[in-house]
Structure formats: structure tokens, C-alpha cells
From TrEMBL:
Active site per the UniProt annotation: D204 (proton donor)
Subunit architecture: Homohexamer; trimer of homodimers.
Boundaries of every Nucleoside phosphorylase domain copy: 15-225
Documented EC number(s): 2.4.2.1
Gene label: deoD
PROSITE patterns named in the record: PNP_UDP_1
Residues binding phosphate: G20, R24, R43, R87, V88, G89, T90
Family: Belongs to the PNP/UDP phosphorylase family.
Record GO terms (molecular function): purine-nucleoside phosphorylase activity; uridine phosphorylase activity
Protein name: Purine nucleoside phosphorylase DeoD-type
Reaction catalyzed: a purine D-ribonucleoside + phosphate = a purine nucleobase + alpha-D-ribose 1-phosphate; a purine 2'-deoxy-D-ribonucleoside + phosphate = a purine nucleobase + 2-deoxy-alpha-D-ribose 1-phosphate; uridine + phosphate = alpha-D-ribose 1-phosphate + uracil
Site entry (Important for catalytic activity), positions: R217
InterPro entries (UniProt xref): DeoD-type, Nucleoside_phosphorylase_CS, Nucleoside_phosphorylase_d, Nucleoside_phosphorylase_sf
Length: 233
């Protein structure tokens, strides 16, 4: 058992899907995994392990933001030996033509968080996806005929920022979408020499103002989940 995950040593698979929402973790376990066992209920942050097409896979809620996902990722890697971490999250589109339900593969992550400024003594670090997982996910998405975009995302510390137009600067420099965890995930994966990838579904658009409901965010992003499960090793 670790401080935030109430699992025994071998309860968690080598590949873990990481939704921010613990209810999305339960949805994935109930609808995609065979023989799923719930290994964690600490803080209501559900974690499950089950079988997908013969592969043992886990899914662990992470909560929202870099501090929260960092706790789970640290414990999954250092205390449970997890090797592949695949975030399955939602994001807000910053680009015209990137629409609700489109899929984004985060090749890299910019951030307004100070976490890496502190870690690297004021210098900049470029959090980057595992090329192996990224290529595999891209190939699978193309085979499925899905509308997938690959590029830079913004991992923001704020969902409700003070300046409603702050996203426009990032958009001007080609950032595809905003979410809240990937910079932390990729940095920790690099630190520990494991593989990480973020797959996102557009839940709302900062460009058009279109948005999905919280129930849709929990339950209807199946294409992203299937890509992540196909990528799992
Ligand atoms: O849907 P999840 O995975 O939680 O991801 C996005 O949604 C949350 C904000 O609503 C943040 O965690 C953001 O990154
Ligand atoms: O706009 C959005 C949508 C999802 N997640 C975010 O962090 N921001």
C-alpha cells in the first residue's frame, strides 16, 4: 500500500490509463475491462485492474491538476512498478477546426505552472510524450478513421483564470488545446525512465463556446478510451 493508493504490490498492471475523473475510471472498468477488480477507493480516487483483449490493464483516477496527478504518478511508478502511463482526459480546443469530440495526442506540453521552473532552477524544460506510445496511438487512430490531431497542449494550473483571453497567446503559437495535467505526467515519466502519453477528447471549444455536459465527459468519449486500450502493452 502507498499513502494514496490502497493496492497490494501486484494489484496494478504495468500499463495504467489515467483519467482525471475517478468516475470515468469506473466507467472504463465497467464497460471495457473483463473481470475488473477495484484496488483503490482511498479518497474516492477509484483504481481498477482488469483484462482488455487478453492484456492486463489498470485504470486509475488522478484528480485535477498537476499536484494531484503527480501524487498518483509518483506512487504508481515508484511503488507499483508501472511502466506505461496513458492519460485519457478532456480538453478545451484553442484552434478553429479542432471540434467537440475530436481527439488530440499531446506530443508536448507547455505550462503556466511553476512546478518545472522550481525543479529546474528557473530554466525551461520541454515535457514530451513517449514517441513509441505516440506513434502507436497515432497509427491506431488513423486505422480507425478517427479525426486526430497531434501537437502541443497547454497544461494550465487554472480552470477559471482571471483573464478570459489568456488562451489566445498560446493559440497564436500553435497550441492545440488546454487541459491541466500533462506537463506533470511527462516530466515524471522522464525522471523515472518510463513511457507516458496523453490522449485527449475535446469537451469544449474556447473558439466557438460549444461545450459538453459533465455526464458526457464521464461516459461518451469511447474512441479515446479504445485507442488507449489498444496502445496498452
Ligand atoms: O477530464 P480530465 O481528465 O479531468 O481533464 C480535464 O478536465 C479537468 C477540468 O474540468 C482537468 O483535470 C482537465 O485536465
Ligand atoms: O477548457 C477546458 C476543458 C477541459 N479541461 C480544461 O482544463 N479546460
Amino acid at each position: 500500500m502507498s499513502i494514496h493508493i490502497g493496492a497490494r504490490e501486484n494489484d496494478i498492471a504495468k500499463t495504467v490509463l489515467l483519467p482525471g475523473d475517478p468516475m470515468r475510471a469506473r466507467y472504463i472498468a465497467e464497460n471495457f475491462l473483463e473481470n475488473a477488480i477495484c484496488y483503490n477507493e482511498v479518497r474516492g480516487m477509484y483504481g481498477f485492474t482488469g483484462i482488455y483483449k487478453g492484456k492486463r490493464v489498470s485504470v486509475q483516477g488522478t484528480g485535477m491538476g498537476i499536484p494531484s496527478i503527480s501524487i498518483y504518478v509518483n506512487e504508481l511508478i515508484t511503488q507499483y512498478g508501472v511502466k506505461n502511463l496513458i492519460r485519457v482526459g478532456t480538453c478545451g480546443s484553442m484552434q478553429e477546426g479542432l471540434n467537440i469530440r475530436d481527439i488530440v495526442l499531446a506530443m508536448s506540453s507547455s505550462t503556466d505552472s511553476a512546478i518545472n521552473k522550481l525543479r529546474f532552477n528557473g530554466m525551461d524544460y520541454a515535457p514530451t510524450a513517449s514517441f513509441r506510445l505516440l506513434k502507436k496511438a497515432y497509427d491506431i487512430a488513423c486505422e480507425k478513421g478517427l479525426n486526430v490531431k497531434v501537437g502541443n497542449v497547454l497544461s494550465s494550473d487554472t480552470f477559471y483564470g482571471d483573464d478570459p483571453d489568456a488562451w489566445r497567446l498560446w493559440a497564436k503559437f500553435g497550441v492545440l488545446a488546454v487541459e491541466m495535467e500533462t506537463a506533470g505526467l511527462y516530466t515524471l515519466a522522464a525522471k523515472y525512465g518510463v513511457d507516458a502519453l496523453t490522449i485527449l477528447t475535446v469537451s469544449d471549444s474556447l473558439v466557438t463556446g460549444h461545450a459538453t455536459s459533465s455526464e458526457e465527459r464521464e461516459k461518451t468519449f469511447n474512441d479515446m478510451i479504445e485507442i488507449a486500450l489498444e496502445v496498452a502493452e
